[in-house]
Design brief:
The protein is of the alpha+beta class. The protein has 7 helices and 7 strands. The protein is globular and about 40 Å long. The two termini are 18 Å apart.
Amino acid sequence: MRSSLVLALLTALTVALAACSTSTAASTAPTAAPASPISVASLAASAVPIDSPSTAASASAEPPPSEIAAGPSASPTSIDPCSLLTQDEASGAVGAKLGAGVSSRVDQERVCTFKTGTTEVKVIVAPPAPDAATAAAYWDAERGQVPAGVNIHDVAGFDRAAYGSGAQGGFSVSALFVIKGTTFFDFYCGLKACTEANSVSAAQQIVSRLP
């Protein structure tokens, strides 16, 4: 069962940066890197920190990740992402006092959002793979398609992990993408990015609490 992983989420990171360049976060994706259906659906309410009617409309026009990547049988994980990271840990990662985590769903993904103003941290957990080998194979295939010039690099200490970040117009975002066994999750920070070290520390806490 595939999930919205590195390539799709990094494309969405570009969408988020474009949105961050305006105070309304309503700009569209750059023509040089059109957002995939997975990235738009997954990150419309995740990577773009301020709700954007235009983004939401584009997301609703595309098939959800379950239809594209995993087929209609894809089911959200039973894991509550808000059980994986505390409010204090999320606040420490981004360097700002955040509100309590709020659980939601974005298509087939479960999301926990810690937020204050336009600064937020999200833990996004995707539907699980049927087995660890399938998860790793999918990661490797998608990781190999990341375009040259995208600011992402692999991170040691997990089954698979990669950290990406970017800045534009005084705003910054970051995301750490991780596989642990059959579980895919994304640790996202914006409009203020989390450092790689802080992201890895938060991801280690998340992994320690996964079933």
